[in-house]
Amino acid sequence: MGYKKASEILPIELVALIQNYVDGDYVYIPRKKGNELSWGEKNGTRQALKERDFAIYDSYLKGARKKQLADEYHLSIKSIERIITKQKK
C-alpha cells in the first residue's frame, strides 16, 4: 500500500471538506467491491511463499531432515511440519 498526497490527486474543495473530519491524520480508503486483492497478491509475497513451501517439500522428499530445513529457512520445526503436511495434500 502506498501513500498519496490528497492535495495532489483530489480537488481542493474535497480536501477542504475531508479536513473538517480529519485534519492531518492518515485515512484508509478501501478498494471498491470487486477490486479487492487477496493478501500478498499485489507485492508477490503469496507467490514467493508458495515457491518457498514447494522448495521445502521438494528438499524433504529428497531426504533433507526437518531440523536442517528449519535452520536453512529460519523457521521452527513445527512450521516445517505444517508446510510438509500442507504440500502432501
Report on the structure:
This is Mor transcription activator domain-containing protein. By secondary structure, the protein is an all-alpha fold. The protein has one domain (6-88). The chain is built from five helices and no strands. α4 packs across α5. It is elongated. The two termini are 33 Å apart. The mean pLDDT is 89.
Kindly summarize this structure in a few lines.
The protein is mostly helical and 89 residues long.
Shape estimate: elongated
Span of the ends, CA to CA: 33 Å
Tell me the count of domains. Answer: 1
Low-pLDDT runs: none
Largest sheet: none
Overall pLDDT score? 89
Please state roughly what percent of the residues sit in beta strands, choosing from under 5%, 5-15%, 15-25%, 25-35%, 35-45% or over 45%.
under 5%
Looking at the chains present, what oligomeric state does this protein adopt?
single chain
> SSE order, as H and E?
HHHHH
C-alpha-based Rg, rounded: 22 Å
Number of helices: 5
